[in-house]
Design a protein that fits this description.
Layout (H helix, E strand, L loop, with lengths): L9 E6 L3 H14 L2 E7 L2 H9 L7 E4 L8 H11 L4 E6 L4 H9 L4 E4 L4 H28 L1
Parallel strand pairs: 1-2, 1-3, 3-4, 4-5
Length: about 150
């Protein structure tokens, strides 16, 4: 009998142009949190194209502000329109109070500073996984009672 691996509690799409940061972040998220990264984009157009494609979407978008081309702010705005059910998180070296305010105005759920708040990002993602697992357990309990 083939046993399929359990799917991750959360799925994520990452918008990050720095390859080293992207690879380390994917490895850390997938190792430390029950999360699967579906893919990534390095620029605004790549992210907008992915958001426009016909797919089931994802649970979480992690978006850098300054990209190889374009800006994560436009991605953040588009994500709110095209994938309103996904959590939208900004991860940036430029998480100043003004930039945080701007990101929240564009629909960010959270804003984290790359240099100082990675642990906070992991804790946030862990909380999302816990909530998803609770919701799945509650749904299974309700289904069993029916």
């Amino acid at each position: 009998m083939d046993v399929q691996p359990a799917s991750a509690a959360l799925t994520c799409f990452l918008v990050e142009d720095n390859a080293v940061i992207r690879e380390n972040l994917v490895a850390t998220l997938e190792e430390m949190v029950d999360l699967r990264v579906l893919g990534h984009a390095v620029d605004e157009n790549g992210a907008l194209n992915w958001l426009s494609e016909d797919h089931p979407g994802c649970d979480l978008l992690i978006i850098d502000i300054f990209l190889a081309q374009g800006t994560g702010l436009n991605v953040l705005r588009a994500a709110g329109e095209r994938m309103p059910g996904a959590r939208r998180v900004v991860l940036s070296n430029y998480a100043t109070p003004d930039m945080r305010q701007r990101c929240f105005a564009l629909g960010a759920d959270k804003v984290f500073d790359k240099s100082a708040e990675l642990e906070d990002l992991l804790a946030y993602c862990g909380g999302l996984v816990d909530a998803a697992n609770r919701d799945a357990g509650d749904a299974a309990t309700r289904s069993a009672r029916s």
